[in-house]
Structure to design on (449 residues):
């Protein structure tokens, strides 16, 4: 049978017609632009227009009626409050993102090694559910100066009192009119004349309310005996009466007061008052002067001034770290889950210890994730406003000032200068741009890889 020749391609389906100027899906560009138009309009209204208006408004005076050119920028960099805000913003950018990222890395690595790692991650991440305003109120109470209210100072006072004995009778002072005790430096009091054996020394003190004495004080008793003795007591009793400088019935003893015998500037003997206020010194004290050391009367330790001018910025950064450490931990833990465990095991087989594995293998493999967290936090700290505004008390607010807060204060917080406020907003934008540029370059590089 003779074969019939078929033309080339016969029996095959026809090739689809090419879509002119279309994408791989065949969608024309004008349809893509049409679908993107709502998002572009929204982006322009919420981003492009505010940026352009702020730039334009920064060239005009406070009420916008007069063109001042770059005058607002000159005012920004010549104002002490704004310069403080620039300095503090730089501190925030240098410290807060690095600390949060480091803590997140440590938490992410350690929680992989414990059974209750999920519960720990949940606890650390929980502060992210709290608003900045609520966190500011919480830490304003945490940093309260009074140890009975502020948790931070309650802990600091407990630790201090564990290692350093607190004073017995703070703010007590001698009854100058009834004794020869005089101030002798360092909060101490020393008698003007020497003490003699057989002649009891009377050391009356005042400045303490009888109901403020610690414990259950006993009535004072006049010392007696052949040696060097004396009495320290509260020379006051309710209802008045009695003779100043003499131990009267009903006057309370001061227990636990340290008494030193001093000769030629050197302590030769010391004793502590008993429950009835009396003390007895050895024979070496005969002819010496008596001194009540300042440790007996020092004010009690009330903790650290967290919100003072010196520590207010580190204290607020601490609250920020508390909030955002969970964010860093979750992102880094997600990156750590994708790390090839064979590389870690190979390093251990080659003799590397855990620290070397962490530093030479884990951290380099997590470098892209760490960079994402670091850049995100750097952009975030430039906008910090709520924490500083809520936590810093009014006397310390100037010392804790940041650019976002200064923008608010210049424009809406009583300043009423929208020109300067707009100039600060433009400066913040300029500061964010390099960080965004680095992030975009990193994303493009990763896409090419």
């Amino acid at each position: 049978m003779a074969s019939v020749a078929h033309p080339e391609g016969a029996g095959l389906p026809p090739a689809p017609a090419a879509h002119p100027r279309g994408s791989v899906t065949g969608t024309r560009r004008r349809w893509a632009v049409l679908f993107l138009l709502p998002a572009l309009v929204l982006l322009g209204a919420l981003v492009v227009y505010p940026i352009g208006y702020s730039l334009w408004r920064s060239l005009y005076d406070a009420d916008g009626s007069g063109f001042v050119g770059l005058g607002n920028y000159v005012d920004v960099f010549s104002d002490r409050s704004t310069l403080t805000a620039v300095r503090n913003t730089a501190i925030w950018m240098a410290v807060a993102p690095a600390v949060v990222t480091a803590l997140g890395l440590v938490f992410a690595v350690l929680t992989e090694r414990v059974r209750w790692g999920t519960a720990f991650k949940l606890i650390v991440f929980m502060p992210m559910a709290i608003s900045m305003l609520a966190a500011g109120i919480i830490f304003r109470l945490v940093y309260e100066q009074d140890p009975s209210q502020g948790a931070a100072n309650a802990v600091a006072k407990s630790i201090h009192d564990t290692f350093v004995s607190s004073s017995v009778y703070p703010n007590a002072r001698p009854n100058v009119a009834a004794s020869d005790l005089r101030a002798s430096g360092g909060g101490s009091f020393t008698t003007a004349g020497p003490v003699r054996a057989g002649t009891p020394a009377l050391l009356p003190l005042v400045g303490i309310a009888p109901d403020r004495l610690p414990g259950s004080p006993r009535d004072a008793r006049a010392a007696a005996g052949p040696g060097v003795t004396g009495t320290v007591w509260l020379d006051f009793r309710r209802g008045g009466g009695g003779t100043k400088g003499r131990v009267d019935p009903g006057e309370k003893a001061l227990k636990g007061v340290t008494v030193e015998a001093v000769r030629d500037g050197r302590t030769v003997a010391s004793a502590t008052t008993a429950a009835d206020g009396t003390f007895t010194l050895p024979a070496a004290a005969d002819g010496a002067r008596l001194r009540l050391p300042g440790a007996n009367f020092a004010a009690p330790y009330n903790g650290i001034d967290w919100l003072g001018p010196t520590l207010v910025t580190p204290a607020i950064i601490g609250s920020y770290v508390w909030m955002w450490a969970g964010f860093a931990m979750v992102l880094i833990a997600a990156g750590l889950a994708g790390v090839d465990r064979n590389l870690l095991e190979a390093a251990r087989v080659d003799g590397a210890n855990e620290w070397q594995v962490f530093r030479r293998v884990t951290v380099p493999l997590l470098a892209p994730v760490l960079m994402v967290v670091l850049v995100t936090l750097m952009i975030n700290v430039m906008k910090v406003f709520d924490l500083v505004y809520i936590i810093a008390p009014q006397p310390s607010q100037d010392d804790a000032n940041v650019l976002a807060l200064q923008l608010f204060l210049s424009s809406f917080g009583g300043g009423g200068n929208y020109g300067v406020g707009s100039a600060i907003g433009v400066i913040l934008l300029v500061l964010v741009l390099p960080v965004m540029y680095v992030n975009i370059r990193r994303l493009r590089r990763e896409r090419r890889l």
Q: What stands out?
A: Residues 185 and 403 are 46 Å apart (CA to CA). Residues 173-296 form one domain.
